[in-house]
Amino acid sequence: MKKLNLLVGILIGLTIISCSSDDDNEDNPQIDFFNNAYLEIYTMDGTTCYADLFLTSGTATADSNNEISINSDNNNVVVFNEIRMDNCEIDNPSIRTFDIQNGYDSELNTVFIPDVFYDITYNNGSFESANEYYAEFSNITFVELTFTSSTELDFEIHYENGTVLTESYSGTIETYTVN
Fold first, then answer.
1. Which helix (H) or strand (E) element contains residue 159?
2. Each residue of 165-178: pLDDT tens digit?
3. Which percentage of the chain shows pLDDT scores above 70?
4. Which of 8, 100, 138, 168 is the most buried (most CB within 10 A)?
5. Is 29 inside any structural domain?
6. How many domains does the chain have?
7. How much is the pTM?
């Protein structure tokens, strides 16, 4: 009986310890959902284009020039800036990277550092504040954005402190070409 009580005590202790590690999430925000994806394309010379990819928990709208604005129903947004697109298309599958671990090279790095916002708040429909997850240039060391199909993508963002954010999106990617 003593061995059974000891075993039960150890299991309870391990359960408490494993649950307590999830309690402090201040350094690791939960941005594990995106309901929408928007691709804003800028044509450069007809063969090379650049695009900004917006992954949002809420919605976005395009103005008369097809430039995307994030609406006030968003809590989380990730923006991948200036994704290089050969032949003005994102081929599937396709991998876009940013890598300063191995030295920045504009020919090899096909996406710029993303902006990762969470806990966005609004006041009377206007943007009030947001937390930007490790926003400084020097903190992000590697980004990989993978388009696995025309409706699915994955991303991985590495920070110099060892944190890695990984997410997936599956659904329609609304595409707009800026006038």
1. strand 152-159
2. 888 999 999 999 99
3. 72
4. 100
5. no
6. 1
7. 0.73
